[in-house]
Amino acid sequence: MSTDRFGNTIDPGVGYARGHLLRGSADEVRRLAQAGRVAADFVAREGVDKIAICTGNLRFYPITSDDLPIHCEEWVGPGLFSEELRQTAIAHLGGQGHEAAAVVNRTSAGIVATVLAHSNQRPVVSLVALGDRSHASVTRGAKLAGVDVIEVHDLDGVKAALKEHQPALTVITPVTSELAMLSDDLMHQATDLARTAGSLVFLDDAYGARFRPVLHGGGASLSFGADLVITNADKAGLSGPRAGVLCGSPDALVPVQAKASELGMEARAPIAVGAMRSLQGFTPDLLIQEAKDGQDLSDALAAALSKERVSRSALGPKIAEDDVLSFLLEMAGQTETSRVPAEAAAAVGMLLLRDKGVVTVNTHGQPGGRVSIRLKPTTGAVSRVGGASAMANALLQAMRETAAHLEDTAWFANLLFGEAQ
């Protein structure tokens, strides 16, 4: 089994080591509940206008005054806006006009439902950028379906996997949550190969549907020939709410809708109409501004910490979880610790939330999500903290405080869960 830099065994289901405090999904749910309480305390002190969302997801609810009594009505409402939703999704994802569309309550739910509906008791082939991994919902969906995930990173890997495993489903992730990106040529060729081999092709384009075309000049999601595409309603320049928008061939989509409905994963009318309004409100300028704020923050953080251990993405800086713990050990004057990187990053995130109202995936991410410190500022987030240098200094202070308590289990338990351990 693989280990991290400190010898901790990595849980293959999530890609990071479990600790004595964050032992699994249940503890991560407790951490998420505590983040809600900490955020509420901050809002009570400072006001909601001081909250700085740096997850890359805004998650507002952009409906109109007419939507509430009409489209949000559960029985008739969905029928009134279903065609508008379909046309909106097709336009956003670059379809031809014949595609069907649907909304599910989370992008992860749509991925799980697709794997369950289309894996057909065969291994799922997952193409993802080299150095990164498939989203946890791909592996979890495969586990529920009782099938394996064959992860590949290039065209040769796709060819070999298609020949050996004859998958009914191939998942392509154009852009991961770490913002590792596949080339357009690779996606075109992989899609052609998979479809020729009789495999349904599903693009998990949660970030990429906007990130690639706006910031990198890439093709629209549905231009690659995939059977089905999904994107988030709250990532990369969208306002929210949290939901997944599916679009593609009706033959591919209907079984996914059926499976999602069986499992309670479908979006009800208020979420569906909110997702539609989110797509309609998108303009490239929103994403371009988020990217500029992210670059300013990357500059400030690299100056405050280390150019070598602060990596850049198009939307902001990242510190890998192993580097976070290395920083803390250096600050504490230690060479080893009982903490694992996921716990260290969660503590830093909770202090940022408590003291500055900065919302990160380290406090508000779902169980199994990435545990690196990733700051993807949404519109206005950096200015709410006082600018890029102020946010970088706040992160540095949070790291110093965490380092001072690195071996204090009671402190960590109180910070992460609001209780003694």
CATH superfamily of the largest domain: Type I PLP-dependent aspartate aminotransferase-like (Major domain)
Report the CATH C-level class of the largest domain: Alpha Beta
Low-pLDDT runs: none
Number of helices: 16
User: Based on helices, strands and strand pairing, what is the structural class?
Assistant: alpha/beta
On the 0 to 100 scale, the average pLDDT is 95
Question: How does the major sheet shape up?
Answer: 7 strands, mixed
Q: Given the C-alpha coordinates, what overall shape results?
A: globular
Helix coverage percent of residues? Answer: 40-55%
Question: What are the secondary-structure elements, in order, as H or E?
Answer: EEHEHEHEHEHEHEHEEHHHEEHHEHEHHH
Query: How far apart are the first and last residues' alpha carbons, in Å?
Result: 29 Å
Number of strands: 14
Major sheet: order of its strands? 4-10-9-8-7-5-6
* Gyration radius over CA: 21 Å
Total number of domains? 2
Could you say what the CATH topology of the largest domain is called? Aspartate Aminotransferase, domain 2
* CATH architecture descriptor of the largest domain: 3-Layer(aba) Sandwich
Q: Strand portion, in percent?
A: 5-15%
